[in-house]
C-alpha cells in the first residue's frame, strides 16, 4: 500500500503498531494530540491532529489506502469528555476516509460495547450491543457508524473488540488477555484480508478461558498464538475469591461494568504502562 494512517499513535497500543505498520506501506502517517512521538521509523511521518476536528482528519487521511483508528479518550468519563474524541472523532475519521476514497477503516473497538453480558455467557460477534459505560456506548456508536458507511457508501471496516491488551496481573485477564504479538497479527490480518465488508472480531489471545467466540470472523485469518494460562498459577495464587454478585467480577466488562456512569474504570485496574520506545 502507498499510505496508511494510524490514529492514537502516542498511546500504549499505538506504540507497538507503529513499526509493523510502517513496513506495510510506503508512508505511514501517525497522528495524535501529543506534540511528538519520539524517533520515527523509516517511512513514518508524524502529524499532530485532533480527532474532534474534521479539518485535521481530512489532512491526515488524504491519499490514505486505509486508516487504523486507535485514537480515543481511553477510559470512562463524563459524556461531555468523550463526545469530542470518541463520538465526533469516529464520525470525522469515517467521513474523511469516505471523502478521500479510502478503502477500509480498521477500528479499535472494545469488549465494553457488550460489557454488561455475564461472563458465563459465551458470546459471539453477532450479539446485540450491551454497553457498560459511556465509553462502551461510544464503541457501539462507531460500530453502527461503520456498518452504515459500508451499507450506504461502500466503505469497509473491521471492528476489533479488544478485551484487555495489557500485562496479565489479575484473574479477569486469564480470559481477556490480548498479547502485543497477537495484537499486531490481528491488525495485520484486518488490513491484508482482501474483502471484509463490515466485520466484527474479538481482540483476544488463544486463552483457555477466553469468554468470547470468534468463529464468525474466521475468514479474517486471525489465529492467536499466546495463552494467558501460562500466568494462571501465579495470578490465582495472589487472588482472593471473587464475588459472583459483583458485576465487576461477573460481567465481560470487568471493572467498567461495576463503576457508575462517568466514573473512571481504569482507576480500579492495575494496567502497567509498558509502551514501546523506539
TrEMBL record:
The lineage of its organism: Bacteria, Pseudomonadati, Pseudomonadota, Alphaproteobacteria, Rhodobacterales. It comes from the Bacteria. This is Thioester reductase domain protein. The keyword NAD applies. Belongs to the NAD(P)-dependent epimerase/dehydratase family. Residues 5-162 form the NAD-dependent epimerase/dehydratase domain. Pfam families: Epimerase. The keyword Oxidoreductase applies. GO terms for molecular function: oxidoreductase activity. Keywords: NAD, Oxidoreductase.
